[in-house]
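Reminder: ligand-aware prediction takes two inputs, not one.
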Amino acid sequence: MKPILECRDLSKTFAGPTQLFKRNKQVTAVDRISLQVKAGETLAIVGESGSGKSTLGRLLLRLLAASQGQVFYQGEEITHANGAHLNRLRRELQIIFQDPFASLNPRMTVESIVGEPLWLHTKLTRDDRQARVHQLLRTVGLPPAWAQRYPHEFSGGQRQRIGIARALASEPTLLLGDEPVSALDVSVQAQVVNLLESLKQQFGLTMIIVAHGLAVIRHMSDRVAVMYLGQIVELASVDEIFDAPLHPYTQALIASAPQMQPGVPRTQPLLQGDLPNPASPPSGCRFHTRCPYVTDECRQLEPINQVLPGGRQVACHRWQEINRDRSAILIAPP
Ligand code: SF4
Ligand code: MG
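Here is what comes back for the chain with iron/sulfur cluster:
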């Protein structure tokens, strides 16, 4: 599959002063990341809050400007796109926000909210816009008759459906969900996940799902990028990540997730301690302050990102030793 979206050596540094980063007024939220998103896949970007995953998503969609590095969309560089080019990107690369309560204007009707991208990006007449809004509401499972209602008249799950309808209005090629279900009740999460999956099939979308939890992404992603303090520490297929994670951080994340198979004993150490301050990340391997396998080398030298046969990536000095029992099967050529 060809990459639809790609970044090379992408960095984003925010300058303070912010409360969180009082002492050191700069934080590099995304640090020299190279990544490809393949057409038609669902790529999950996973990490704790503060890992830079939302920032990476926004950089890829050009909702934020990069401090360094390059972004490409369909083979064309978009790092400095502006004017009509940026407008086209706004249409084709859409985002669904985490909080359906905050992301919808409470003073606008559903018809105006969902119709806004049509008003901005198309020359449709008022009647045609209205017909299209009704069709979009049906697509996301809401009755068109509700178009004149306001956001407060809807439940959380319904509001997220409105956000999805708005994102679909401009017929995007790619949809980024920034924690698209984490603000919803567990009972509603599965419905929205199912909706996203069926829309992906129906419209041939590429998806990026940003999430702090692993459970949601297991059934909806093809590949998973695991982020830690602004860097990708592991990138692999969803099965590899869940069944045979190589990086100690991925292993700890999975061990710390709510038990997916109750009764099966945990074999990996749980995640210890808190995320270090992103404004002054640890030397060497950034995970070294929490890693059960840390050595002096880890404290001093930043591990390089190794690409293994088959394409999975891991950035750890000791991944082979740590996974010795399994490495024979893991790195066998496909
Ligand atoms: Fe742990 Fe060292 Fe690997 Fe970092 S490089 S994850 S500290 S073993
Ligand atoms: Mg976030």
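The CA atoms of residues 3 and 110 lie 35 Å apart. The two ends are 17 Å apart (CA to CA). We will return to this case in the review session.
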